[in-house]
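Appendix B. Chain record.
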Amino acid sequence: MVEVRSSENAFLHLVSSKESQGTSCRLTDSGLGPEEMEELCRILEQCNQLAELDFSRNRLGNEGLRHLLERLPKMCISYLMK
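Structure tokens predicted for this chain:
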């Protein structure tokens, strides 16, 4: 699981393991905007075992949401998205 709650820069390294049911990525209140969401979506669509995504309390706006919705069909999310 990855959980970030900061408006500072963060480095994410997503690795799946045999024990986990999938990768949870929680980037709540992290200051994500449209540009960051576009790049993050490119990275997340390469992760084949996403269980949960949480981008709540960010400043995605319409453009960031559009980036997410465009790439969402390419993501394998098995559980929950906020």
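Further analysis of this model is presented in Appendix C.
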